[in-house]
Write a sequence for this structure.
């Protein structure tokens, strides 16, 4: 069920929206540190393996532990976020993940480090499930794409900075100090959430849509929302492809394109940071403009941009010239990241306020368990059976599948509108 149309209220630093601007800034800042904490271990892993004598398989489970715990505990926090004070739940989550990141620096063996990284997943589940619901109560439905884009633009920047900080701090002060340095500041951010005003739940929605329901009924309601179901299916495919791209593209650039490892990492990292930041922000802005003109503006942008992104990605992978490969990959990632804000806006717009945290939690559970938790291993298996160059062709094919699912969402939304 989608929210009732409301007048467009642009975000600006003044008047009635001053609190909304401050809240978006706080939540975006926390999301920035969220991804620093999540990805710092990538840069520190060689030193950790050397000191703790970890095999590659054991080191890989540190990433799996985070993803699985993050996905599996999200429904719990979604349930709590739909029933309790959301800023309190988020503050607790930020404190847990920040403390767990810092405690990783005290680990003396694999077990302690594994427990710390798994606990980071618990804390981030609280924040990741509830923040979209709060953001949806800060602005009207036709402005949520832009707000979600601002919030999500912290993802590529924070991820890249996590790698950079891990490399710099680890080289100068050791991997333990790096965990302390990025983890402890999060406790200050946790306090800022505790003192952040709680926005009125469903303030831009009709009173009848604000009713809270039992968890079982909430899941039934999500299943009955075919627009939500098809949107999440597309998000699963999207996350699967993004996860495979992020994991294997540096190796592909080195092995299939013949670039040195350091140069390949810097090339792919630079492309991802720029396209992730610009594509996410522009996609959210364009999505809002389209949503002003048509009820299906967000899904229209997602379908079109995914089609272009998939085509450019495929062309990049089959291009023989390295310069052409870089140009096409940049274009592909730009259009792929343009989906981030509109898709997250669709998830909260297609359900009632009383089940929005549960809707976000369910999406998080599915996109990770069926998406980036399995795509690196699956693509790696295909590469072992043939070649990495051929295995990478799975990625644009799954991007096309995401667009097909979102096209299904578009058709069901059109069919559900009164004539």
């Amino acid at each position: 069920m989608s929210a009732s149309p409301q007048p467009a209220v642009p975000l600006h630093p003044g008047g009635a929206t001053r609190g909304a601007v401050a809240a978006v800034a706080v939540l975006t800042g926390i999301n920035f540190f969220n991804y620093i904490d999540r990805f710092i271990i990538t840069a520190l892993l060689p030193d950790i393996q050397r000191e703790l004598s970890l095999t590659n398989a054991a080191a890989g489970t540190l990433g799996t532990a985070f993803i699985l715990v993050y996905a599996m505990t999200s429904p719990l926090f979604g349930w709590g976020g739909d029933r309790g004070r959301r800023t309190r739940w988020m503050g607790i989550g930020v404190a847990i993940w920040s403390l767990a990141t810092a405690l990783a620096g005290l680990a003396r063996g694999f077990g302690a480090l594994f427990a710390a990284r798994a606990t980071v997943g618990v804390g981030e589940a609280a924040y990741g499930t509830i923040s979209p619901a709060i953001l949806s109560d800060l602005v009207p439905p036709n402005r949520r794409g832009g707000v979600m884009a601002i919030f999500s633009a912290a993802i590529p920047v924070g991820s890249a900075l996590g790698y950079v900080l891990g490399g710099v701090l680890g080289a100068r002060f050791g991997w333990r100090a790096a965990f302390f340095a990025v983890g402890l500041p999060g406790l200050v951010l946790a306090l800022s959430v505790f003192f952040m005003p709680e926005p009125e739940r469903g303030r831009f929605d009709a009173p009848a849509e604000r009713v809270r329901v039992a968890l079982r009924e909430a899941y039934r309601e999500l299943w009955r929302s075919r627009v939500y179901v098809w949107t999440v299916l597309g998000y699963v495919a999207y996350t699967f492809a993004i996860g495979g791209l992020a994991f294997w593209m540096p190796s592909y650039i080195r092995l299939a394109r013949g670039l040195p490892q350091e140069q390949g990492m810097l090339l792919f990292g630079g492309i991802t940071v720029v396209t992730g930041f610009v594509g996410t922000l522009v996609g959210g802005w364009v999505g809002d403009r389209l949503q002003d003109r048509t009820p299906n503006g967000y899904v229209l942008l997602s379908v079109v941009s995914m089609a272009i992104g998939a085509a450019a990605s495929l062309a990049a992978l089959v291009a023989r010239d390295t310069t052409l490969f870089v140009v096409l990959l940049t274009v592909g990632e730009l259009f792929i990241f343009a989906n981030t804000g509109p898709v997250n806006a669709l998830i909260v717009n297609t359900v009632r306020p009383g089940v929005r945290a549960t809707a976000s939690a369910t999406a998080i559970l599915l996109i990770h368990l069926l998406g980036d938790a399995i795509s690196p291993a699956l693509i790696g298996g295909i590469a072992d059976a043939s070649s990495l160059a051929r295995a990478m062709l799975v990625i644009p094919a799954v991007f096309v599948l995401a667009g097909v699912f979102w096209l299904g969402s578009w058709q069901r939304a059109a069919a559900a509108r009164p004539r």
Notes: The longest helix spans residues 18-52. DSSP finds 18 helices and no strands in the chain.
